[in-house]
Amino acid sequence: MGRQKLWWGRGLAAVTMLALAGCTVTNDAVDSKASDAAPSVSAGAPGGEADTGTLPGVPSAEQAGTELAGLKVAPHGSMAGYSRAKFPHWAQQGEKCDTREKVLERDGTNVTRDAECRAVSGSWVSVYDDKTFTSASDLDIDHMVPLANAWRSGAAGWTQEKRKAFANDLTHPQLLAVSAASNRSKGDQGPDEWQPPSKPYWCTYARAWVSVKATYELSVTAAEKNTLTDMLGTCSS
What we know:
Blueprint: H1 2-22, H2 32-36, H3 61-70, H4 99-107, E1 109-113, E2 119-126, E3 131-133, E4 139-143, H5 147-152, H6 160-167, E5 175-179, H7 180-186, H8 202-215, H9 222-232
């Protein structure tokens, strides 16, 4: 029995490595600085931290607190020149799948796709408002840090290629399938202006938001930092 368990563990690790290698995307990878920053995945849920579900690269509350302390604090920059077109999405990810379809598959349960990679069935739980959906058309893919918020906090000075990487980042906790209603309620607001209706998700939300801002070296406002500190405080409540 011991040998069988050892063989199974090694086999599972090998399959996982092959699966990850097969999903590598070269054309739409995050810029070298961001991709070099290894995401810190929280192991388990220490200190009462909420389950991060399918969201990748979410740091622990402790690490998020350290990253938050290191972020530049500055007022919002200008929206002059902003356009969603300057953050090209959704990028092709291979096998006829674009970024949206990849997130829908990752975040759903029993997802089936047609020949064009469109999700035609499955079940999704919108963690922002605790609602369950069985139609992909009821879901939006939320940018954890909205494109307009990123523009005002540093992305205005990026290259188009880096903005494209940001808008299609499947490695860090930047993309999440949620209800269209909650995504549109959020808009481009920061945590000081909008928080998920489901308060138990505040811990994960704050950790993810801080991680994305730290990875891409985006600034935060004073009000944003204060609210994120309060939200991280729910991780141990």
